[in-house]
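Consider this pair:
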Amino acid sequence: MIKNITFANPEFFWLFILLPIAIFIWIKNRKKQRASVKLSAIQGVQEHTSLLVKLLPISIVLRVVALSAIIVGMARPQLVNVDTQIHSTHGIDIVMAMDVSGSMLARDLKPNRLEALKTVAADFVSQRVTDRIGTVIYAAEAYTKTPVTSDKLLILNDLKSIKYDNVLRDGTAIGVGLATSVNRLKDSPSKSKVIILLTDGVNNTGTVDPKLAAEIAKEYNIKVYTIGIGTNGLAESPVGIKENGEIVYERIPVELDEALMKSIAQTTGGKYFRATDTKKLKDIYEGINQLEKTKIDEQKFVKADDQFQLLVLFAFILLCIDFILQKTIFRGFI
C-alpha cells in the first residue's frame, strides 16, 4: 500500500500570486491608520512604545500564514492510499535445462561458462515475478534440480549450489536433458510452457534422441529456446585433473552442434541463440524475457481522505489571535 499527499484542486495555488499584493496593502493601511500623538516629553514611555512597535509585524505575519493556510485548504489536500493487487492472468511455466558437463568450466566466458550461466539465469528468474520456474541439470545423465515452482528464493538458492562435481557421469546427453525437462512440464495446467535448453557441446551420449525429444515437446505444446554457449574458434578448456585436484586447461577447438539446436527450436516453435561471451548470454536471456511476456491484471484501489479541515481550523485560530492582539496590546497602534 502506497500513501501520498495529492491536491484535488491545485489551481487554487495561483492565489499565492496575490499574497505580495495583500502584504503591501496591509502595510500601507497600517501606516495610514497609525495615530500620532504629540508629547512634551517621551521619558517613561519610550521603551514601552518601542517594544510594541517591534511586535507590530506579528499581526501581518499571522494574517499571511492564515491566508496561506486557507489557500492550501482550498486546493483540497488529500491523503491518498493506493493498494495495488497484481494477478497473473496468463502465467508461464518455464524449465531451464542446463548443461553441467566438464566442458562448462571453459574460461571463454568469465569466470567460466557455468558460473556465467548461473549469474545470468539468476537475473532471469528474478525478473519472472509471476511465473513458475524449474531447473534440470544434465551431463551424460539428467535430473531435476528444482521442480516447477513459484518459490523464487528456492530456485535462486538451487542455482547457487550448482557446480561441476562429477555426481553426473561426464558427457553431453542433450536428448536426455530435454526429455527430462519435457517430463516436468507435460502435465502442467499452464497455457504457456517453455524450456530454455543450454549446451556447449554435441550430443555424444544418452538413450534419447534429441530430435525425438523435440517431437515429444511439440506434442505437449512446449516451446523450446535453445542456446549454444562458447566462443568461435579456440577456448581455454579443461582437459584433465592433476593429483592435487587442480584442473588442467588447454586451448582446444569449440565443438557445438548448432544444426541440432536449430532443429530442436524450429520443431517446437522456439528460437536458437548463440552466446559467444558473457554479455551475449545476458542479452539472450533478456531477449527471451521479452519474447515470453506474462499477461498481468493489475487492480488499484484508491482511497482519498480530505485534510483541508485542519488547515481551515489553523487559519481560524491565527485570525482569532490577530483579532485579540488588535483589541488588546496593539489597540491604538493599528
Summary: DSSP finds ten helices and eleven strands in the chain.
